[in-house]
Amino acid sequence: MPRRRQKGETIIPMINVVFLLLVFFLLTAQIAPPTPFEVTPPDSAADQAARDQDVLYVSATGELAYNAARGEDVWPLIEAGDPAQPLEIRADGAVEATTVAALLKRLRAAREAGAQLVVNGG
Known about the structure:
Order of helices and strands: HHEEEHEHE
Strand order of the largest sheet: 3-2-1-4-5
Shape: elongated
Mean pLDDT: 77
Structural class: alpha/beta
């Protein structure tokens, strides 16, 4: 009588179970917790224009821009601004942390209110 050849175990059932678990977790998971209620902040053209005036931009290479001034020319304008008003900094995500740290140190000396670093995220 010929020997029966043993069948190898298939992994198809295990793949099916893993796929079903993956689908289950994707459907039941929450990416971010829901907000308790919808909030729409008020709009103000005057407030937005005033806020845009006090924004210091920093490029990925560390170049500064404040209103129409670029480079080191921004410092006289920053120092001439309201020292009690905090300055908003919008830096590129690729800028070196040491550049931002040195910038914050110099701003602390130039303004009483210091600066607010704007980042993306929630």
